[in-house]
Amino acid sequence: MLEIIRRAVAEALSQWQLTDYTPGVVEKISPLQLKLRDDLYLTKENLIMTDKISDLTVGDKLVLLRVMRGQKYIVLSKVVAE
Questions:
Q1: Of 9, 23, 26, 46, which has fewest CB within 10 angstroms of its CB?
Q2: Can you give the three-state secondary structure of the chain, one letter per residue?
């Protein structure tokens, strides 16, 4: 019985997609716009910036953390090497 409950909880948490890392690319600087996918662009209203992010240029690759079920994204860092 306990195993069934554990599986149900794990499945529910997975479906909620509370947090997840995702890549993004700077599309525009002013106003700031990031592209996550062909059909998903973020503006400053959707972003929580960290002190690690400065001097952004168009084309910069970023690592973001999706929070609040995708309503906000924390910009964690620039990608400096792949």
A1: 9
A2: CHHHHHHHHHHHHHHHCCCEEEEEEEEECCCCEEEEECCEEEEHHHEEECCCCCCCCCCCEEEEEEEHHHCEEEEEEECCCC
Paired sense of beta strands 72-78 and 47-49, if any: parallel
Q: Which amino acid is at 36?
A: L
pTM score: 0.72
CB atoms inside a 10 Å sphere around CB 48: 14
Return the residue matching tokens 């400096």. 80
Tens of pLDDT, residue by residue over 61-76, are 999 998 866 688 999 9
The domains of the chain, with CATH numbers, are 19-78 (2.40.50.140)
